[in-house]
């Protein structure tokens, strides 16, 4: 009894992938135009194409817990931050948490350089310990460093710095044996934002700092550049891998499909105004890896089919290969998508945004493997290789068919070496055998008649020589 297996796509399905490619390429072009238009609109109206997190934009991001039952409109929080003088202040509620907000400001330290210089002058006037060298402090840093000739009293020094505007905690630093280093940890932006909001909205409004992150502007710019470089390096090495693993004509289709997937995912972040940060870059790299895996499976089936059907137009072979991998592609991507959907539905914060990026990338990546990578491969093969070798276009295949060649009937059993019907080959072999047998029979008759003349002549000679009785 023949075993039956579940197949999502019925055997014999022949969806016209190649003929329909132009419509899907047009759809991709529309999506990319929407992405570009959205980013342009965001830049003109919001000052940034994407909602860059502090990883890229720099600044401080503080997640605050409000008092239970304290219903504070988010607009009042924004107005309080603006009134306190924070640059580029914004605030949003956390949808997956109870009564929490996230405040984002461009400030990275609670003091500026002028205030730091004033604190240094105050320390120079400290009578119980003399500074050995100038203060060490970089604008935007969260720590100040002093080196004294004798040990200071930490509590007195902390009160002196607080009075001068450098509020923080004074601790013993590290240095040489004959030096007395001091390290001042400045009050972070989280504490300053909490203090300002409690002053504006009422004491006890903010009960806890859940998390606080600070990234300098220079570090943010460097991280942004490194994120772009990581994507470019990934695409470049994948191009080399596909070129060496398959053929140069396959590589452009794979890379264009990957760039297409990454760009549309970025466009989804621009459209939804979700925060774009280092986690998003990690998601894009994950999408690139997942998508090229799917594309390589499709390319491998195309190459296998082309090798088995050398006389078939490559467009038809590509259609057959894509239909054969369709069930596997949908089942694999669908299973992965279910896991990502569960993570997106149950996750919170950055995990939810990471799952959102993967969700878009999996859908777009599966689509591009079928409708973007393969048409580009066919175009490259036609434009730059002219159907060279066994990768033939429809026109090249038609031109190379021998007019005397009889093609096999549909569904006939075909010999892979010659591409002809096995029944036709057997009939020809039988005809040749029959013709050979007739030739040998005729030859045998001719030899017998020719040899038979000699015995007849000898018999006659013998009769003539027989003595008379």
UniProtKB/TrEMBL annotation:
Query: Where is the protein situated, by its record's location annotation?
Result: Cell membrane
**Membrane topology classification:** Multi-pass membrane protein
Q: InterPro entries this protein is in?
A: SecD/SecF_arch_bac (IPR022813), SecD/SecF_bac (IPR022645), SecD/SecF_CS (IPR022646), SecD_SecF_C (IPR048634), SecD_SecF_C_bact (IPR055344), SecF_bac (IPR005665)
Q: Where is the Protein export membrane protein SecD/SecF C-terminal domain?
A: 206-382
- Report biased composition (Low complexity) as residue ranges: 432-444
Region described as Disordered = 431-469
The regions listed as transmembrane in this protein's record are 23-43, 227-244, 250-273, 329-347, 354-380
Which Pfam families does this UniProt record tie to the protein?
Answer: Sec_GG, SecD_SecF_C
Is Hydrolase there in the keyword field? no
Primary localization: membrane
- State where composition is biased (Basic residues): 458-469
Q: Which UniProt keywords apply?
A: Cell membrane, Membrane, Protein transport, Translocation, Transmembrane, Transmembrane helix, Transport
List the residue ranges forming a coiled coil, or say none.
Answer: none
Family classification: Belongs to the SecD/SecF family. SecF subfamily.
Q: According to its UniProt entry, what is the function of this protein? A: Part of the Sec protein translocase complex. Interacts with the SecYEG preprotein conducting channel. SecDF uses the proton motive force (PMF) to complete protein translocation after the ATP-dependent function of SecA.
Q: How does it assemble?
A: Forms a complex with SecD. Part of the essential Sec protein translocation apparatus which comprises SecA, SecYEG and auxiliary proteins SecDF. Other proteins may also be involved.
NCBIfam families per the record? Answer: 2A0604s01, transloc_SecF
User: What's the protein called, per UniProt?
Assistant: Protein-export membrane protein SecF
The major lineage groups are: Bacteria, Pseudomonadati, Myxococcota, Polyangia, Nannocystales
């Amino acid at each position: 009894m023949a075993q039956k297996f579940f197949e999502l796509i019925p055997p014999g399905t022949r969806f016209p992938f190649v003929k329909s490619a132009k419509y899907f390429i047009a759809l991709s072009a529309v999506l990319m135009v929407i992405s570009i238009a959205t980013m342009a609109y965001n830049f003109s109206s919001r000052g940034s194409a994407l909602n860059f997190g502090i990883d890229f934009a720099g600044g401080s991001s503080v997640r605050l817990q409000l008092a239970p039952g304290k219903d504070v409109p988010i607009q009042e929080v924004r107005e309080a931050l603006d009134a306190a003088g924070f640059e580029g202040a914004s605030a949003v509620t956390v949808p997956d948490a109870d009564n929490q907000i996230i405040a984002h400001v461009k400030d990275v330290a609670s003091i500026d350089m002028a205030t730091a210089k004033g604190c240094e002058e105050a320390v120079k006037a400290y009578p119980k310990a003399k500074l050995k060298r100038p203060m060490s402090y970089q604008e935007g840093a969260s720590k100040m460093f002093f080196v004294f000739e004798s040990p200071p009293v930490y509590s007195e020094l902390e009160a002196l710095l607080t009075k001068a505007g450098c509020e923080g905690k004074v601790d013993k630093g590290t240095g040489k044996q004959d030096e007395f280093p001091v390290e001042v940890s400045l009050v972070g932006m989280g504490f300053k934002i909490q203090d300002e909001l409690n002053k504006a909205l009422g004491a006890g409004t903010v009960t806890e700092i859940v998390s606080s992150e600070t990234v300098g502007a220079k570090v943010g710019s460097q991280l942004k550049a490194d994120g772009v470089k990581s994507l470019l390096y990934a695409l470049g090495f994948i191009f080399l891998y596909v070129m060496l693993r398959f053929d140069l004509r396959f590589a452009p289709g794979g890379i264009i499909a990957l760039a297409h997937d990454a760009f549309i995912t970025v466009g989804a972040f621009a459209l939804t105004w979700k925060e774009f940060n280092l986690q998003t870059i990690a998601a894009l790299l994950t999408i690139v890896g997942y998508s090229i895996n799917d594309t390589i499976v499709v390319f491998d089936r195309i190459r296998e089919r082309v090798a088995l059907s050398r006389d078939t137009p490559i467009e038809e072979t590509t259609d057959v290969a894509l239909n054969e991998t369709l069930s596997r592609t949908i089942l694999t991507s669908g299973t992965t998508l279910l896991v990502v959907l569960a993570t997106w539905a149950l996750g919170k914060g950055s995990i939810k945004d990471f799952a959102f990026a993967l969700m878009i990338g999996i859908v777009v990546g599966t689509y591009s493997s079928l409708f973007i990578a393969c048409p580009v491969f066919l175009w490259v093969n036609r434009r730059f290789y002219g159907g060279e070798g066994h990768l033939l276009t429809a026109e090249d295949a038609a031109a190379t068919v021998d007019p005397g060649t009889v093609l096999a009937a549909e569904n006939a059993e075909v010999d892979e070496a010659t591409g002809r019907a096995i029944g036709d080959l057997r009939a020809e072999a039988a005809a040749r055998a029959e013709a050979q047998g007739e030739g040998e029979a005729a030859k045998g008759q001719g030899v017998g008649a020719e040899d038979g003349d000699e015995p007849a002549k000898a018999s006659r000679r013998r009769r003539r020589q027989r003595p008379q009785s």
